[in-house]
Amino acid sequence: MIKKSTLFTICFLLSGSLAAQWTQGKGNAYVKLSGWYLKSDSHFTNTGEIAALPTRVFLNTSLYAEYGLSKKIDLVTYFPFFARSLQNNQVSGTRGTILEGGEGASLKSLGDLDIGVKYGIYTSNNWAVSTSLTFGIPTGKTDGGHETAVLQNGDGEFNQQIKAAIGHSFQLKKMPGYAKSYVAYNHRTQGFSDEVSVGAEVGLYVLKPLLLTSKLNLLRSTKNGTLSESTNTTSLFANNIEYTNVGVQIAYFISKNIGVSYEYTALLNGKIIAAAPNHSVGVFVKLH
Amino acid sequence: MKKQMYVVFILLITVSSCKIKDDIINDYVTPEIRVNTSKIPSNNQLTISEEHQFEVRFFNDIGIHVTQAPITWTSSNNNIISINKDGLAKAVAAGEASISASVANDNPSTANEIITTEIATINVVNHPESLSITNLKNTLGKGETVFFLTNYVNIFGEVDTTTPLVWESTNTTVISVDQNGKVTGLAVGTSEITVKTQNNSITFTFQLEVKEAISKIFINNLTNSPIKIGNNYQYTASYFDENGNLNTTNELIWTVDNPSIATIDNNGLLTAVNVGNTTLTVSTIENQETLSFEAEITTENNNFSIKNPVSTLGLGNMHQFEIDFLGTSAVSWFSSDANIASIDEFTGLLTAQSNGSVRVTAQTLEGGIMLTSSTEISINTPQKTGTLETLSYSVRGNVTLTSNKLTIVDFNSTAPDSHIYLTNVPNGPANDSRDLHVSKNGKITSSSLVSLELDDIDINKYKYVVITCRSFGNFVMGRAELN
Predict the structure, then answer these.
(1) Model pTM?
(2) By C-alpha distance, which of A81, A122, A116 is closest to A187?
(3) pLDDT at residue A156 is higher than 90
């Protein structure tokens, strides 16, 4: 269930192009191949407390792409073509035996596919404003694992997110940089609550071609869903997830149009979500 | 650049193919035997012979309840409490003993320690003796015997039928009791009955009252005498209810099974109708059950006999016969020869007609049986006789007096002027105005037979014949009492 809200928010943003409020322009494209990894042995409860859980690992390998259909319209997609979640064996420290109901579990499948369009509303030398509409397609698997280790690679619902973003480029002590922020509303189906998310990001070419980016994201549930919070046990795909995270990304431009990146994101607080940092590595290409 | 891209791609694949690892859980807990406190005897006490199932649960070093754990049960004193391998304890004797449970932890990878837990210290006490009577009653009818049955539970909690018990009655004139619990009501009254063990360890005492009767009805005034036909007999009955109280409110129901022999009214008044036997029953209803008493009743004819028979009757005399008969049927009188003596058939008045003998018979038909009574009677001239007692002048002789003749056989008198008088004054002197001067035609002299005619006198009017000397003032020389 991480998919629509969390995956989108976490993975999509991680995979998204830098300074994504600018459209690519007709015929241009931005492609990023990413691997995302989260390992957690605790989670934030619905009251925000941290509670221990069997160790679970979530990871996926995804392809993010933006393609300029026109000067102001991009086609955007996020395709986690390999998603995997697993739970560790629960082994008795006293006897070394696998405890009842604690065998590991694993689920491999596609993740939930996102596809949408972005429209550049305003562009100047330093400013860009865009809006986007993204549909979350429930292509992920939702019933993996076993009775005591239910695993999911998707949330099983079709959602629609509308987003507005604004960006600004600048020079800081001769170091080019940018800042952007966004606000998004994600309408979810199948009894899930809608979500509102906001975020801000600042990127700075500290040592060109090294780009250092910091991010802050907030996601809140509108709590208007009918689905029980505990219906899905995977603490990434539950209903009414909320969190605040911060992230740091380092991107290294191997050439003008190709680069690699690493991002570390940690949650400052959250509800019904894994309480662990996640990591992402990727390689991106700009195509003209 | 291609090399760098390849490295990134390999890195992604490597990350994606990570394996399931182990979470090592610190799940050690101290193994323990948990006592199910609800399974400990109340007040930590058992009575002799009582069994008790102890129960514990063993939780091993990872907190698992080992349901098949080989618990070893021990008692600190098997002479007081024995306990089997399943934890079933039995109190053997009075005293105190501790029950413990032991078990070894079941970790297959370590040398397991033996865990022992004392469950409880149990005090074993004697089973409270009890003694009761299973067929207890507090009233007894006079003359009634009952065997009281006891239920004695000894200190082992066993129903004991072998230990001899002692029976006592505080008033043996009212109630007697033997050592087998046989109790007999001897007289109306109350006595305290006690049954106890020989060592007085337990006693059961109760009051027992002897009533005249209990739940009984009987006729108070049965008679062995047959009841005469036509006669009534008032029966009375007493009913003693279930409490032994004389009950005068319950209705008494009187019946006879053969009303042709006797009838009885609702108040017990029986009337004999015919000769025979019938069963008399008096009954009442007590708690929807009928109590009854039966008696065989015999009826018979009334006495029937001539009350005043006479053996002789003077010619021409009459005699009123009477019959001794309490019946109501008509009596008829008959004479065997009406020429000698006739009798009125209805009144029994007999009239002597001539000398001779007849049989007079009275008869009546009562209850279909002809009753008769007869008597013989002779009709003749009436006479009295007597022997002269000599007072002087050697007067002697045997006198016979009839209504028209007086004779003296072997008469002797040495007096010069002897006369005969009938009188009631035997010592004289005779008086012509008072007495009957029989020899008024002249003096009589000694003779073998003196016969003097009389004028049909009433011979019963005089009791004596005296011989006087008329010329000397009619002093009495000899006299005879006439019978």
Answers:
(1) 0.52
(2) A116
(3) no
Q: What number of other Cβ atoms are within 10 A of residue B258's Cβ?
A: 15
Interatomic CA distance for residues B144 and B239, integer angstroms: 16
Between CA A209 and CA B330 the distance in angstroms is 169
Min CA distance, A62 vs chain B (Å)?
Answer: 10
Start-to-end CA span in chain B (Å) = 195
Could you tell me the two tokens for B38? Answer: 């609800």
C-alpha distances (whole Å) from B183 to each of B121, B136, B139, B210 are 48, 12, 11, 11
Going by the DSSP 8-state scheme, the letter that residue B7 receives in this structure is H
- Three-state SS at B255: strand
**DSSP state string for A95-164:** T-PBPTT---EEEEE---EEEEEEEEEEE-SSEEEEEEEEEEE--S---EEETTEEE-SS----EEEEEE
Residue from A94, A110, A153 to probe the interface with B (highest B Cβ count within 10 Å):
A94
Q: How far apart are CA A99 and CA A91, in angstroms?
A: 6
Would you call A90 and B23 a contact, using CB atoms and an 8 Å cutoff?
yes
Do residues B2 and B10 touch, judged by C-beta distance below 8 A? no
Q: How large is the ipTM?
A: 0.79
Q: Characterize A244-270 residue by residue with b for buried, 16 or more Cβ atoms within 10 angstroms of its Cβ, and e for exposed.
A: ebebebebebbeeebbbbebebebeeb
Closest CB to A41 among B8, B23, B61? B23
Length of chain A as a residue count: 288
**What phi and psi values does residue B39 have, to the nearest 5 degrees?**
-100, 10
Nearest residue, CB atoms, A94 vs list B21, B23, B62:
B62
B23–A35 C-beta distance less than 8 A: no
For residue range B20-31, what is the model confidence (pLDDT) as tens digits? 888 898 889 999
Nearest C-alpha in B relative to A38: B15
User: Is the CB of A35 less than 8 angstroms away from the CB of B16?
Assistant: yes
Neighbouring CB atoms inside 10 A of B167's CB total: 17
- Distance between CA atoms of A187 and B243, rounded to whole angstroms? 94
| Mutation site, A81, A82, A89, A95, interface B, largest B CB count within 10 A | A95
Chain A, chain B: beta-carbon pairs less than 8 Å apart: 88
Rounded Cα distance, B146 and B140, in Å: 8
Which residues of chain A make contact with B11, given a CB cutoff of 8 A?
A: 35, 281
pLDDT level of residue A6 (50, 70, 90 thresholds)? very low
Pick from A37, A255, A258: CB nearest B15: A37
Q: pLDDT averaged over chain B?
A: 91
- For chain B, say whether A229 makes contact (Cβ under 8 Å): no
User: Would you call A59 and B15 a contact, using CB atoms and an 8 Å cutoff?
Assistant: yes
Q: Is A59's Cβ below 8 Å from some Cβ in B?
A: yes
